[in-house]
Write a structure and sequence with these properties.
- The complex is a heterodimer.
- By secondary structure, chain A is an alpha/beta fold.
- Chain A contains 11 helices and 12 strands.
- Chain A has 2 domains: 221 residues, P-loop containing nucleotide triphosphate hydrolases (Rossmann fold, 3-Layer(aba) Sandwich), CATH 3.40.50.300; 89 residues, no CATH class.
- The longest helix of chain A is centred in the middle third of the chain and has 18 residues.
- Chain B is mainly α.
- The chains are: A alpha/beta, B mainly alpha.
- The complex binds adenosine-5'-triphosphate and magnesium ion (MG).
- The site of adenosine-5'-triphosphate has 15 residues of chain A, from strand 1, strand 2 and helix 1.
C-alpha cells in the first residue's frame, strides 16, 4: 500500500442476494484516496456510490449483501476481512460517515449531546464530564449557536441544516482520518447547502481529514474536490483530477454526465441534455461496456467485451474502447470544452 | 407541563362524572329492584327498608343525593351485606385484584418485550416462528378458556398448583398466567414489528458508524424507539386485564373485586354496583393518564403536551 494513501479500494465486488437473484451492485471498483485529499464520487442514481462507501465502513447488511471479491486497504488492513471487533474500533474513530438525510439519521429519542458523546466515550475513553465538554466544543466548532443549551435538546428541536451540522459534529468528534459524506447536502435547501460544504472544507483543513464526497452536483465537485471518480453501473468508468475531468473528460458517459447535470459554475442558459435510455439492470449486467446501449459512439466491440482501464495521463484513467489505438477518433462535444476552468 | 396535567385532570373528572351518571340511570332502569326476591318480607317492612335507603324518592333526587355523598367520600352501605359500607367491601376485595393485575402486567410486559425482541433479531429463525405461532394463539384464545384449561390440566390433572381460592402466592400463578398471555402475545407482536422497522432506520446506521457494537446499538438506540408504539397499546391492554379479571377471578374463586362486581349486579345491590363501577372507571382513567405520561417520557417529541417547537 502506497504510504501517501489513506485508502485503497481494489477491484471491489459487492452483490446482494435477493428473491429475484443476485444484484451485482458493485462490479470491480478501484480507486485510491491520498492523505488530505477530497475525492468526489459521481454517477447516476443506482450506480453503486452508496454501496461502495458503505462497504468501506462495512455497513452493508450481510445478508443480503456479500463481498464477492477485492480489497479495501486502510492502514495496511483489508477492511473486508477484519474481525468485527476491530472494525468497531475503526468506525467512528478512523473512518466516519455523514449520511444524506439529517432528518432521519439522528436518533429522535436521544439528546444531540449524548449522540455526540457516544463515540468519544467509546474511542477516546473519556468520562462523562470530559465527553460533554468535548461535545460542547464540537457543537461550537460546527457553528451551532448557544451550544450550551442546544446540547441537551433533541433532534426535532433542530432545523435541517443544524441537524446536518450536528451529524458533522458526531462524525468529526474523534478526528477521523477519513470522512465519507454520502450526499451530505442533497436534502438541504440551496443556501444551507453552501454553508454545510464550506463548513466541511473548513474542518477538513483544520483537522487534516481526507474526504470521500458523494454528490450529484458537479458544481460542488468543481468547488471542493481534488479528484473525481465517475461511476456507472457498478464500475468506475473514469477517474482523474478535477481539472482533467472538467476540461478533458474522455469517457462518453462523463460527457453525458457533464451535459446533463446542473452546475453552479456555469451560466444558467447552458442547456441541460439528459442522457437517453436507462442504466442496465444489475441483476444481469451486459458482458460488454454497460454504457454501450446508450453511447452515441458505441462500436461493435463495446457490446461484446468490457474495455480495459487505461492510463490517459499519470492521474487520469479511462475504461473505454475509444482509448484503443485502433478506435476512430471522436471529438469531445464542444460545449463541454473549457466549460469548467476553475 | 403543569397546565397540561391540570387540564388532563379536568378531563378525567368530567369523564368520571359522565360514567357515574350513565351507570346510575342505566342501573335504575334495569327491571326489578333490590328487594324483589325477598318474598318473605312483609310489604310494610319492604317499604321501610326502601325508605331507609332513600329508594322511595324520585330518581333525580336520589341522583343528587348520591353525588353529594360521593363528594364526601361516602359510597353508601351495601344492601346485601347488611351494615357494611361499600368502601369497606372494595378495600377488602381490592388487594387480591391488584396483586393479580400487577403480576399479570409485569409478567406480560417483560416476556412480551423479550419475545418480541428476540423474534425481531432472529428474524426467520425457529425462535421467530415459534414466537409468531404463540402470539397468534395467545391473541385468539379468550382468557376464560385458557383459565379453564389451565385449571383443569395443571390444577386438577397434574395437581401442581391449586385450582382456586386465595391463600398464598402459589394461588396467584394460574390466574396471573391466564391474564398475562394476551399481554405477552400483543406486546411481542408489536415489539417485533417495531423493532424490525427501527433496525432499518438511518439512525441505526449512524449508531453503527460511530463504532457501537450491535448490542449497544440495539439497547441504546433501537429499544426505546421500538417501545413507543408498544406503549400506546399498553393502556388498552391493562384495561383488558382489569376487565378480564372479572371473569378469571370467578373461575379461580378469588375473593377479589371482580367477583363482587358480578355478584352485585345479579342481586341488584345498587350501592355496590355504583361503588365498584366508579372504582373501576377511576382505575382505567388513571391508567390511561399514566400511559400518556409514560409515552411522553419515552418519546421526547410529544412532551410538553404535543407541542413541537
Ligand atoms: N440492500 C439491498 N438489497 C438489494 N439491492 C440493493 C441493496 N442496497 C443497494 N442495492 C442495489 O445496489 C445498487 C446500487 O445502489 P446504491 O445505493 O449504491 O446507488 P447510489 O449510486 O448510491 O444511488 P443514489 O444516487 O440514488 O444514492 C442499486 O441497484 C440498488 O438497487
Ligand atoms: Mg446513494
Amino acid at each position: 500500500m502506497d504510504r501517501n494513501n489513506v485508502l485503497e479500494v481494489k477491484d471491489l465486488h459487492v452483490s446482494f442476494h435477493t428473491y429475484n437473484g443476485e444484484v451485482q451492485a458493485v462490479r470491480g471498483v478501484s480507486f485510491e484516496e491520498k492523505k488530505g485529499e477530497t475525492v468526489a464520487v459521481v454517477g447516476e442514481s443506482g450506480c453503486g456510490k452508496s454501496v461502495t462507501s458503505q462497504s468501506i465502513m462495512r455497513l452493508i447488511p450481510q445478508p443480503p449483501g456479500v463481498f464477492k471479491h477485492g480489497e479495501i486497504l486502510f492502514e495496511g488492513n483489508d477492511l473486508t476481512k477484519l474481525p468485527e471487533k476491530q472494525m468497531e474500533g475503526i468506525r467512528g474513530k478512523d473512518i466516519a460517515m455523514i449520511f444524506q438525510d439529517p432528518m432521519t439519521s439522528l436518533n429522535p429519542t436521544m439528546t444531540i449531546g449524548k449522540q455526540i458523546m457516544e463515540g468519544l466515550v467509546k474511542h477516546r475513553k473519556l468520562g462523562r464530564a470530559e465527553a460533554k465538554e468535548k461535545a460542547l466544543e464540537m457543537l461550537r466548532l460546527v457553528g451551532i449557536p448557544s451550544p450550551g443549551s442546544r446540547i441537551d435538546q433533541y433532534p426535532h428541536q433542530f432545523s435541517g441544516g443544524m441537524r446536518q451540522r450536528a451529524m458533522i459534529a458526531i462524525a468529526l468528534a474523534c478526528a477521523p482520518k477519513l470522512l465519507i459524506a454520502d450526499e451530505p447536502t442533497t436534502a438541504l435547501d440551496v443556501t444551507i447547502q453552501a454553508q454545510i460544504l464550506d463548513l466541511m472544507n473548513d474542518l477538513k483543513e483544520k483537522m487534516d481529514t481526507s474526504i470521500i464526497l458523494i454528490t450529484h452536483d458537479l458544481g460542488v465537485v468543481a468547488e471542493t474536490a481534488d479528484r473525481v471518480v465517475v461511476m456507472y453501473a457498478g464500475k468506475v468508468v473514469e477517474t482523474g483530477t478535477v481539472e482533467e475531468i472538467f476540461n478533458r473528460p474522455r469517457h462518453p458517459y462523463t460527457w453525458g454526465l457533464m451535459g446533463s447535470m446542473p452546475r453552479m459554475d456555469l451560466s444558467r442558459d447552458t442547456e441541460l441534455t439528459p442522457i437517453l435510455g436507462a442504466p442496465p439492470n444489475l441483476l444481469s449486467p451486459p458482458k460488454g461496456c454497460p454504457f454501450a446501449s446508450r453511447c452515441p459512439h458505441a462500436m461493435k466491440v463495446c457490446k461484446e467485451q468490457m474495455p480495459e482501464t487505461t492510463d490517459a495521463s499519470g492521474t487520469q484513467r479511462v475504461a473505454c474502447w475509444l482509448e484503443h489505438p485502433m478506435a476512430p477518433s471522436v471529438e469531445i462535444p464542444h460545449d463541454l470544452v473549457g466549460g469548467a476552468s476553475k | 407541563m403543569g397546565r397540561y396535567v391540570l387540564q388532563r385532570m379536568m378531563y378525567m373528572l368530567i369523564t368520571l362524572w359522565v360514567i357515574i351518571t350513565l351507570t346510575f340511570f342505566l342501573m335504575h332502569s334495569m327491571p326489578g329492584s333490590p328487594l324483589q326476591h325477598e318474598d318473605k318480607i312483609p310489604v310494610e317492612l319492604k317499604e321501610q327498608i326502601l325508605k331507609q335507603y332513600g329508594l322511595d324518592q324520585p330518581l333525580p333526587v336520589q341522583y343528587v343525593k348520591f353525588l353529594g355523598n360521593l363528594f364526601q367520600g361516602d359510597l353508601g352501605t351495601s344492601f346485601k351485606y347488611d351494615g357494611r359500607s361499600v368502601t369497606e367491601l372494595i378495600l377488602q376485595g381490592f388487594p387480591a385484584s391488584l396483586q393479580l393485575g400487577l403480576q399479570a402486567t409485569a409478567v406480560g410486559v417483560l416476556f412480551g418485550l423479550l419475545l418480541g425482541c428476540i423474534a425481531a433479531l432472529r428474524r426467520g429463525s425457529w425462535v421467530d416462528n415459534t414466537a409468531n405461532i404463540f402470539s397468534i394463539l395467545g391473541y385468539s384464545v379468550p382468557n376464560f378458556v385458557l383459565a379453564t384449561l389451565l385449571a383443569y390440566f395443571v390444577g386438577v390433572k397434574l395437581g401442581w398448583l391449586p385450582v382456586g381460592l386465595w391463600h398464598g402466592p402459589e394461588y396467584s400463578i394460574l390466574p396471573s398466567i391466564s391474564l398475562a398471555v394476551l399481554v405477552i402475545a400483543t406486546m411481542a407482536r408489536y415489539i417485533r414489528t417495531e423493532m424490525l422497522e427501527v433496525l432499518g432506520q438511518d439512525y441505526m446506521k449512524t449508531a453503527k458508524a460511530k463504532g457501537l457494537s450491535a448490542r449497544t446499538a440495539i439497547t441504546k438506540h433501537a429499544l426505546r424507539n421500538a417501545l413507543i408504539p408498544a406503549v400506546t397499546v399498553l393502556g388498552p391492554l391493562v384495561i383488558n386485564l382489569i376487565t378480564g379479571s372479572l371473569v378469571v377471578e370467578r373461575i379461580f374463586a378469588i375473593p377479589g373485586m371482580g367477583w363482587m362486581f358480578v355478584d352485585s349486579i345479579q342481586i341488584q345491590d345498587y350501592t355496590v354496583i355504583m361503588g365498584v363501577t366508579i372504582f373501576y372507571s377511576a382505575l382505567i382513567i388513571v391508567t390511561m393518564f399514566l400511559v400518556d405520561v409514560l409515552y411522553g417520557i419515552i418519546d421526547p417529541r410529544i412532551r410538553i403536551g404535543g407541542v413541537k417547537e
